[in-house]
Amino acid sequence: MTTSSAHAVNLQQLIEDSRDDILSQASAQQLSKIIKCSDPSSDVAKTDFYDIRLDSRQVSSNDVFVLLQSWSKDKQKSRDYLLQAAEKAAFILSEVDPFTLFDDESNNSEFGDIQDHTQSTAQQRLAALPCPVVYVPTIRAFLGELIQARLQHPQPVSLPTVVAVTGTNGKTTISQLVAQLIQLTGVSSAVMGTAGNGKLDALVQASHTTGDALAVQQFLYQMGQQSAEVLALEASSHGLDQQRLQGMPIKVAIYTNLSRDHLDYHADMAEYAAAKAKLFDKRHFPKLTHAIINIDDEHAKIMLDTAHASGLKVWTYSLQTEKNANFVATKILPSLEGVNIGLRTQFADDSCDNMEVISPLLGRFNVANLLAAVAAVTALGVSLERIVALIPQLQGAIGRMQRVPSNDGCFIVDYAHTPDALSQVLDSLSTHCAGKLWAVFGCGGDRDAGKRPLMAQAGLAGADHVILTADNPRSEDPNAILQDMQAGMSAEQYQRTHIEPARQKAIAYAVTQAGADDIVVIAGKGHETYQDINGVRHDFDDSIVLQQALQQAKRI
């Protein structure tokens, strides 16, 4: 979402006029210190500007461009972005030391014939730019607040209370469940994450789980304009590590679990967990009051330690009856229509600490997701009795254990794209399967290649028959990805495996081969409505392709 402000403002005005709950005192002090240290001749503090931009291509006349360090740390690209933005910007705030972008250049006619030998080449280049450049190495620490302060000036709105969910699996479902439960109490809610952004009845497809700082703050402001009172969002490890959520008024933070994913970005699992733990650090999110943590997960300790160190109210949840958690599932009776749950919690009515919960969500892992959502909504002040009464009205997130209707058999679409998630889906469904269990899945290209054989083994361990196919191959050859997935497979496993690179054909094969008592899971893409092949997003929705295959096979 790109917005344009009609009224100009300057940094000094934002510092003086912004409410403390928008631009904190600490952030205002950092900003004041930086602009005081900038070149006095430029007087950046009192230079009027319109909008703050993070994309040099979107900079209009008298906008502010914020140059952030890229993950690749490509100096040439950063220099190109700076030069492009400088043609129109009022000034530039750079996380990258601007001197390092020009210190290896020789004289260039682009800057004119510079003969001042008392300055370094980099100084000369910077002095010749059409606008001032201010080095702000800590800008991520207050960028979100700065953007929100600009959006609020001169049209302030009340921002929604934010519930944030982090973890490898369960983020989308939990955020959707929180928003649904809040909506069912009569309070306007919205979501932001993988399955879409917006009010529950008007979601817009998202390109990232967590957008950049500008997109996040614009969305928050937009939801405030639309009178949303609660926003449930997914906090990705990338977003937390890169501080894209800085300035979000997060009140309740939820941790689900951690399993292998994104190790093309994080060095190892410890670094991955540390990124997730930032969500429970009040230094990053000063409005935090509650942490909701899954103590069944092996990485829960770092989340618990961080939350306790921040002085948060820490509530835990568990599917293990022997654990002393705040929310415990003491009974789990699953079926293909949902789950009957026994809930033990100290928050129940005094007359009963065990409650009967009827959930329409499929799968054992969705019991954990539901407990997290129930705890979060309780933290927002809704009574547990009221929450439990609303649970039967819940709907699963699109592409999460989504059952596609058929005359016989059972056909499920799910987003499971990690070994752990796939194992959980197959384990949950195996208890209901009177026939054979089938799994259709692949692995994404240009991502953690070490995950590929693990995905195949997870599928083979949980399903009777496996169909390996393309996911989003991106720039890679689908056959090469499929070859990686087959590493270490035994002869017995090959006998249970069918390989079909074309995903549509793979789904059709599963439909024609599965028996009347069989369950088929189409995993990996879930809610996605495209397939990314060589940089082109082709229309592809697993649920629609599956429905078409069922029609062709006369199974609906």
Automatic annotation (TrEMBL):
Compartments reported by the entry: Cytoplasm
- Start and end of every Mur ligase central domain? 165-377
Q: How is it modified after translation?
A: Carboxylation is probably crucial for Mg(2+) binding and, consequently, for the gamma-phosphate positioning of ATP.
Record keywords, A-Z: ATP-binding, Cell cycle, Cell division, Cell shape, Cell wall biogenesis/degradation, Cytoplasm, Ligase, Magnesium, Nucleotide-binding, Peptidoglycan synthesis
Q: Which reaction does it catalyse?
A: UDP-N-acetyl-alpha-D-muramoyl-L-alanyl-D-glutamate + meso-2,6-diaminopimelate + ATP = UDP-N-acetyl-alpha-D-muramoyl-L-alanyl-gamma-D-glutamyl-meso-2,6-diaminopimelate + ADP + phosphate + H(+)
Q: Which residues bind ATP?
A: G167, T168, N169, G170, K171, T172, T173
- Source superkingdom: Bacteria
- Which InterPro entries does the entry link to? Folylpolyglutamate_synth_CS, Mur-like_cat_sf, Mur_ligase_C, Mur_ligase_C_dom_sf, Mur_ligase_cen, UDP-N-AcMur-Glu-dNH2Pim_ligase
EC number(s) for this protein? 6.3.2.13
Give the primary localization class. Answer: cytoplasm
What are its cofactors?
Answer: Mg(2+)
Query: What is the name of this protein?
Result: UDP-N-acetylmuramoyl-L-alanyl-D-glutamate--2,6-diaminopimelate ligase
SUPFAM superfamilies found in the cross-reference section: MurD-like peptide ligases, catalytic domain, MurD-like peptide ligases, peptide-binding domain
Motif Meso-diaminopimelate recognition motif per record, residues = 471-474
By which gene is this protein encoded?
murE
- GO molecular function per UniProt: UDP-N-acetylmuramoylalanyl-D-glutamate-2,6-diaminopimelate ligase activity
Question: Which residues participate in UDP-N-acetyl-alpha-D-muramoyl-L-alanyl-D-glutamate binding?
Answer: L54, S56, T209, T210, S236, Q242, R244
Ranges for the Mur ligase C-terminal domain? 399-526
Q: Which family does it belong to?
A: Belongs to the MurCDEF family. MurE subfamily.
Which residues span the membrane? none
